[in-house]
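Input chain follows. Return structure tokens only.
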Amino acid sequence: MASSFFTKIPSLSVIFSIYTSLSAFTILFRTILHEILPAKIRDFIVSKFTDCFSSYFSSSFTFVIEEHCDYVINQTFRAAQVYLPTLLAGISTGSLLVSSSDLKNPTAKPNFGIPVKAKITDEFEGIPLEWTLHSEKDTIPPQNRQRRYNPEFHEWESTIFQHHTTFETLAMEPELKNSLICDLDAFSKRKDFFKTVGRAWKRGYLLHGPPGTGKSSLVAAIANHMNYNIYDLQIQSVKDDAMLRQILTMTENRSILLIEDLDCSGADASCRNEDKVDEERGQNQNKEKKKKKKDPDQVTLAGLLNFVDGLWSSCVEERIIVFTTNHKDKLDPALLRPGRMDVHILMDYCTPTVFKKLAALYLDVEEHVLFEPIEKALLEVNATPAEVTEQLMVSMNPDVTLKVLVEFLQTKKLTKDNDSVDSEIKEAEA
């Protein structure tokens, strides 16, 4: 075995001959590389060899710090945002991001930031580091996204839009649904028309009706139908008109600006809670609420109208503005005129047609012996689609679920009758 091994080892002369041949080839290759090939081709070949072998011998490592982690703000990203502006001396490009967020003070000191794709050199405990900022547009495929304004950081926070409601699954009166779809499709095809008549390419929708009637689901269906992003703005969190201007100028084309509970703007969050209590007790009418003094620093009606009509709306294209409210009668008439709110959509209580759509969607049934008493009850009592949906999710068994819904509507009707009797007694005593 040992003798066989030693007999296979090449002689010294053979090894020397191989070394001489390799050396000659190397010298010839270098001569061709430096004297025959142009410099650009030479650099290209060298770079390819470097890239090929560097992956096996490179000691570098890349850390990816995303702005969002599991749809919430990544605090490591925030820390990097604060730290990197202190290293502007090490920026590799000749550009610098300059901004100002103080609209009330033009002489305020500007803020400096890092442009996209700019590289910054750094060092930590003798280890060289290189920072690079990448835009999500370069790394994330196009998709619907929902953005909510964060007043703490003065920016829109982005999350993947995961509301699956479409016009196909939306429980809504067919005539109203078809009319809305036609209006949206016509709007999306009329860019040249808006340009010709000198108007901003935008459309305004007002969704009004009791809580739980599907206003948010309708907005989701519009977004999915148009393939638009949604900018969800809680106007109560906006400090003043100047901040509103800053917020709106940060939005993009082909998007929906959603301002919910417009009737509660300037009031505290208890406005919505009061509506729910009123709805449960059936005492919406003849009830007066305390009026509160408006903070002078809050967004004003004039400020809101200026941005719906003014320069902001003229600087964007294919924009839909959606206002929602539980009380249309509380809104200033100036907000309701065409050109601001072009289409008013009443999101009302559940009807027999809407109920059948919900039953088909949640129970996969189109006919049942209990449909008739349910439809009759829905004409006698006010039940929101949200309330009906809650009962339809009790069980996957249609017999059990529809029976529960019948009992729910009967209880609701009994409560309504008792309230009517009590009201008549109080009026008689008065």
